[in-house]
From TrEMBL:
It comes from Channa argus. Binds specifically to collagen. Could be involved as a chaperone in the biosynthetic pathway of collagen. SMART domains: SERPIN. The keyword Chaperone applies. Its main location: endoplasmic reticulum. Keywords: Chaperone, Collagen, Endoplasmic reticulum, Glycoprotein, Signal, Stress response. It is found in: Endoplasmic reticulum lumen. GO terms for biological process: collagen fibril organization. It comes from the Eukaryota. This is Serpin H1.
Length: 410
């Protein structure tokens, strides 16, 4: 066996023994709130860093899960390897123990399927080289706070090592995420792997029959065929005329979180929009949303996206952990022999019609007359925003959804 799993159990994020169980109205502790807020800043800086790479098309990651993986680095790191984590999270003043309990509390709160009505499976694993000895303390506390399990991997047979990573991810996500990576370049360090499956459950569902085939314009000259789902309803909406953008916020069940779409009027590369993306601008847009009758059409597709964030996190300030000659991760192994060689962050997200029953009483009333159109048939940015903690559960962009290329229509 190339892989020996110390804890083969695949856990739902919410089964974490970490924080106290969340109740609907419980406020986050102060340090968890600070971290929630800061993870929203991390969301935007990391998004922009990923988007710099011209080869990247679709983007999808969970800032709160990235934050908790950074927490794991702090747990295993010493001196500046650990303190850099706090700098990235803007939490230099937060005590170690509060960092760990705060991140755990935040993730437990936002991924609780009972209070949130979401399907969100999160599995985390730290792979170490076959020579590593994980320290008991580290294994215990990383499990407790971050729900990480640990495994050794031998890259002598690289192909089967990569296969075993992908198999683990697939199993952890009920087969929704088939591949985390095709290859592993650096095989001499520890690897963080996040494997997730997320499915939004709308506050009001799309009718499963209101689905048909349409074209999605990846660019002016390239259109793919996919299914789109349609519904009209009252939604928070803002038409930003000066920037030629539509902002639409659609609540998920229990209304504790919502998906915010930001889409240019017309098909264009998202660079112009992405330059505008700051926390301040987001807040401005959120403040201008008004309940409006909107006819919404969204792609009904699944996205499976994997990013190796090692380089990105290095560029955002995690320079020591990722550097073989500098990293001090000796709280993981008891020796200064490890560095963070990869951070595979992979998620499958299923855009589907499922949700709670629609309140049909407003149909046929004045309220829904002359709805605005939100027709998402070209690239857009989206965020899954948590209303209570203000954290960002996911951020991404749909640029090239899965689908057959359509014949050019002339
Ligand atoms: C790292 O380990 C040392 C002792 O081995 C311990 O005192 C320290 O608290 C640990 N650091 C963290 C961040 O857990
Ligand atoms: C969400 O709530 C609906 C009913 O309100 C239920 O049918 C569905 O299973 C719930 N989903 C999750 C993931 O809890
Ligand atoms: C790692 O740190 C060393 C020493 O500061 C530096 O020379 C080297 O460029 C760094 N490596 C990377 C990949 O950044």
């Amino acid at each position: 066996m190339w892989v020996t799993s110390l804890a083969a159990l695949v856990l739902l994020a919410t089964s974490s023994s970490a924080a106290t169980s969340s109740s609907a109205d419980k406020a986050l502790s102060t340090h968890a709130s600070i971290l929630a807020d800061n993870s929203a800043s991390l969301a935007l800086s990391l998004y922009k860093n990923i988007a710099k790479d011209k080869n990247v098309e679709n983007i999808l990651f969970s800032p709160v899960v990235v934050a908790s993986s950074l927490g794991l680095v702090a747990l295993g790191g010493k001196s500046s390897t650990a303190s850099q984590v706090k700098n990235i999270l803007n939490a230099a003043k937060v005590k170690d123990e509060q960092l760990h309990t705060g991140l755990a509390e935040l993730l437990t709160e936002v991924s609780d399927p009972k209070t949130r009505n979401v399907t969100w499976r999160i599995s985390n694993r730290l792979y170490g080289p076959s020579s590593v000895n994980f320290m008991d303390d580290f294994v215990k506390s990383s499990k407790k706070h971050y729900n990480f399990d640990h495994s050794k991997i031998n890259f002598r047979d690289k192909k089967s090592a990569v296969n075993s990573i992908n198999e683990w991810a697939s199993k952890s996500t009920d087969g929704k995420l088939l591949e985390v990576t095709k290859d592993v370049e650096r095989t001499d360090g520890v690897m963080i792997i996040n494997a997730m499956f997320f499915k939004p459950h709308w506050d009001e569902q799309f009718h499963h029959k209101m689905v048909d085939n349409r074209g999605f314009m990846v660019s002016h000259s390239y259109t793919v065929s996919l299914q789109m789902m349609h519904r009209t309803g009252l939604f928070d909406f803002y038409d930003d005329k000066s920037n030629m953008l539509y902002i639409l916020s659609m609540p998920l069940a229990h209304k504790k979180s919502s998906v915010v779409f930001i889409m240019p009027y017309q098909v264009e590369t998202l660079e112009r929009l992405e330059k505008m993306l700051t926390k301040k601008q987001l807040d401005t847009w959120m403040g201008k949303l008004q309940q409006t009758a909107v006819a919404v059409s969204l792609p009904k597709v699944s996205m499976e996206i994997s990013h190796n964030l090692q380089k990105n996190l290095g560029e955002l300030g995690l320079t020591e952990a990722v550097n073989k000659s500098k990293a001090d991760l000796s709280n993981i192994s008891g020796k200064k022999d490890l560095y963070l060689s990869d951070v595979f962050h992979a998620s499958a997200m299923e855009w589907d019609t499922d949700g709670n029953e629609i309140d049909t009483s407003i149909f046929g009333t004045e309220k829904l007359k002359t709805p605005r159109l939100f027709y998402a048939d070209h690239p857009f940015v989206f965020l899954v925003k948590d209303q209570e903690t203000k954290s960002i559960l996911f951020i991404g962009r749909m640029v090239r959804p899965k689908g057959e290329k359509m014949r050019d229509e002339l």
